[in-house]
Amino acid sequence: KGSEADSRTARGMRAVRRVARAKNARFGHERRPCGSQERFGWERKRGLGTRRRWYEVRADSESTPRVSAEPVETDGSTTKLLRVAGVVGTASAAAKGLGMVREMAIASCFGIGAVVDAFSFAFILPGFFAALLGGINGPFHSAVASAIMKTKDRNEKIEVVEKVASISFLALGTISLFTCLLAEPLIDLAAPGLALSGTQGMLTRQVAILQLRIMAPSAIFAGMTGIYFGALAASGSFVLPAISPAFSSLSVLACVMAFVVSKSENIFTGGASLAVGILVGSIVQWVVQASLVVRNKIGNPLRLRIYDVRQDPTIAGVVAVLAPAVVASGMLQIATYTDLYFASFLPHAAASLGYANLLVMAPLGIVSSSLLVPILPMFAGLVGRGDWKGLAQQLKSALVISMAATLALASVLIPLADPIVRWVFERKAFDASASAMVIPLLVCYSVGAPLYLVRDVLVRAFYALGNGRTPFVVSGVAIIANIGLDWFLTMHYHLGAPGLVIATVTCNGASAIFLHILLSRKVQEVKEVRLGKPLVALLLISVASSTLTYFFHMLLRPCLSSLAHSLLGTLSGGRMALPTIGWMADGASICTAVLLGFASFLGFAKQLGIEEASLLVNTLNQKVQRIIGVAPRASIA
């Protein structure tokens, strides 16, 4: 038996040497019998149950060529980006869809009255923490993901997560305490116009103060959630972090439903129900993220200690990106604060801005999460390997895909702004006058959607380079310009709430241009990438698609309305209410027009030879074929 075992071992060793010689011959290297060391490693393909072997020759001499074990980016990186983006986008779509249902319930229950107006002002600070620190693609997410991607050792990754979490808990806990104690002056600072608007304004102010005090602790859980977002994204877990905001929407829905069931007419009770929903949702979201962190063994959420980080290079690197990123990535939120500052002098402007922003940010958030979540690790990996040409090419793909997705979105939102607002919100407390205030704001926000996402892609490129100062400075200048434009357009030209949105869109576009210029100076290979031709083509396509979408809806609406009344009326035996049938017919016509508009946009883009659009069309075709069972799922190499 011993001789048989030795024989098998010998045969195994000979097979290993044959594989080694084949590997060396493939890569053009000669095996060196002296002064060299062979090493074999294993890489497990996650989720596939298969293994792949690599061979590496290390020599004492630095001149000896080597076969790197590091994976090399190929031309399929754009396809990989689209594949990951599809997974994240599906999860985000589910969360955003539930968020839309939440806002529809709030609109139906409170309209654009004092409760929603007060909530718009009270949520400025908690929303800042939720969207920036705790949100997916926020500074905590970006800074932690970048730091972990640059670290190979698992223990070092755990140490980074736990150190950042401990420091953030102390800092955000202090901020939450002061927010609760100073709620009244903070509301007066954010919305000075409420105190000057008579009895209704003072009532709105008191509700906002109560809501802010209730939501103050949510800053702690938002920061922790953002840290775990980054850790999970760096470890390859995208789906649950992308869908976790749905838990927050569920908690708000539950609180609003409880208020409706109670049949209370107390405005303070209604305002408190919204605030409690936000606080409970942030806690549930943190619990979900923490459980996944424990499962993946990348940290202990309950291990919070005091660290001396003054001389810690890892934490210093995280803070170097994090501190300026809080302002840089929060330009939209800070600009929103300036918008709300001036909106406090305009009746019902704050609530109208919130509803219009939601209709754009719901689909835009899906696109943003789909692209920005996988793009940061890709950028960081290319920077770590010093592949500047690959970085420039990946940046070009990300920018073109971002413009294509957002222009396609704008091409259906702009012509359908009126029917979308009326179909989504107009019921009960939300009447026709409220719709008239929201519709022009939706058009303005839709125009600025491409600039918002392009700017965020460029900011992620700077984060991957470890440079947070440049976005910080550009965003600071843009915020100052936004304040000036807000005053000029609303107080001087009296454009009202649309003037506030126009100012924000203008500043986003200017900051995106400056960021691209500065990135081209920092990375010379970015200058060699030509974006003019695809961007002009996409703009022309969006105009054509927008026109077609408008005519699609005009043709479909009467046909589907007549069909719905005859078909549903017959099936229900005349028991279904006519307004319900009309609402369903309007929804069908809007959805059909949107699908046809998207199809025309992608068709035009593919015909004009835009490579990223062609890849996007092929990816969508493959997903549809897999769903209906036409084609088998391809294996991941």
Task: Describe this protein's structure.
The protein has a two-stranded antiparallel ribbon. It has 637 residues and is mainly α. The protein is globular. It is built from 24 helices and two strands. A hairpin with a 6-residue loop joins strand 1 (36-44) and strand 2.
Could you give the topology of this structure?
Blueprint: H1 2-27, E1 36-44, E2 51-59, H2 77-110, H3 114-122, H4 124-133, H5 139-149, H6 154-181, H7 183-190, H8 198-215, H9 218-234, H10 239-243, H11 245-262, H12 267-295, H13 313-328, H14 331-343, H15 349-385, H16 388-413, H17 417-425, H18 432-464, H19 469-492, H20 497-522, H21 524-527, H22 532-571, H23 578-607, H24 611-628
Antiparallel strand pairs: 1-2
Helix pairs in contact: 2-11, 2-15, 2-24, 3-8, 3-12, 3-15, 4-9, 4-14, 5-9, 5-13, 5-15, 6-9, 7-8, 8-12, 9-12, 11-12, 13-19, 14-19, 14-20, 15-16, 15-18, 16-18, 16-22, 16-23, 17-18, 18-20, 19-20, 22-23, 23-24
How many helix segments? 24
Strand content: under 5%
Ends: how far apart?
A: 40 Å
Q: Report the major sheet.
A: 2 strands, antiparallel
| Element-level helix/strand string | HEEHHHHHHHHHHHHHHHHHHHHHHH
Identify low-pLDDT runs.
26-75, 630-637
Fraction of residues in helices? over 70%
Q: How many DSSP E strands?
A: 2
Note the main attributes of this structure.
637 residues; mainly alpha; two-stranded antiparallel ribbon; 24 helices; 77% helix; globular; disordered C terminus
Précis, in short:
With about 625 residues, the protein is mainly alpha-helical. The chain has 24 helices and 2 strands. Strand 1 and strand 2 form a beta hairpin.
